[in-house]
Amino acid sequence: MAEEQGHHLINFAFHSYAHLFETTRRDIYCRYPVAERRSWLDVVPSVAAALRKTRICYQLVCYGSIWNERFPIFGRKVVTLREKPAPKSLPPEGPEITLREKPQANIILLDGPEVQAQIRDAWLVFAHGWPFRVPTDWIQRHAEKIRDYFQPIEEYARASREAVDRLRRDADVVVGVHIRQGDYRTWRRGKYFFPAARYAGWMRELAAQFPDRKVAFFVCSDEPRTADEFPGLLVGLGAGSPVGDLYALAGCDYIFGPQSTFTQWASFYGNKPLFLLNDASDRLDPAKFRVSGLDVCV
């Protein structure tokens, strides 16, 4: 949205991850567009690290947005965009839902006439909450700039490359597999929780569809895994960190896993086809894999 409409973004909420990316590790404000000069807060030793660790900037902005919403003393010059309360009951569950079809009242479409009218005359806008969305055509139009902004630091970029390269030495096709189990045991009543044996079945099913090519699988998970869980398959396990796993997935030829923004980002960043699992009965077909446009919400 900043690129599309010429806004400047400060993202204190990104402090927990700022050290992982080239553009944000030296910018206490996590700005977009990237600032030409560093802030004095970044130059003075230890100041930026202390601010990130305490998250005081984030807290100040959160409380500032709430106070501005309750006491709008600046009128239209300072605006708070804030998510509405979530519905008391979950919407009916079905296949993946695009952001414009999702029947939840708290989704905020930033290109919508209501939001655009609110921010038209503002010089400062607080965006408070999770469900802010922009049109997919904006994302596609500025995809390369988004990817450039979120390049990981070399330590993690190298680890992710090496994890995939090790598999490519012995394989023609590398498939990234995201096994998310921890919170998915209970989230949405376990709808997207699948046992490791089911993932192994999907992996064999997909490998069989490349009869003349050797297929390897890069497996990442939020819980410890062993190669013994995937007998008969060529498997590599993780890249040593969550961000390493994320960008290793982006380097694979195909990606599959349960509904998650984790795999969607990997697909988008690497421009690699993705299949999002919705049910244990899903069947994998390379023709059904699609590069994510970051438009699926769960």
Explain briefly what this protein structure is.
This protein is an alpha/beta fold and about 300 residues long. The chain has helices spanning about 1-5, 40-45, 45-55, 55-70, 115-120, 135-140, 145-150, 155-170, 195-205, 240-250, 260-270, and strands spanning about 10, 30, 80, 95-100, 110, 125-130, 130-135, 175-180, 215-220, 235, 255-260, 275, 290, 295.
Helix-strand category:
alpha/beta
Order of strands side by side in the largest beta sheet?
Answer: 10-9-8-11-12-13
Measured as a percent range, the helix fraction is 25-40%
Order of helices and strands: HEEHHHEEEHEEHHHEHEEHEHEEE
Number of extended strands: 14
Major beta sheet, specifics?
6 strands, mixed
User: What are the segments in which pLDDT stays under 50 over at least 5 consecutive residues?
Assistant: 90-103
Shape estimate: globular
Count of discrete alpha- or pi-helical segments spanning 4 or more residues:
11
Tally of discrete structural domains: 2
Oligomerization: single chain
Determine the mean pLDDT. 91
Query: How much of the polypeptide forms β-strand, as a percent range?
Result: 15-25%
Distance between the termini: 22 Å
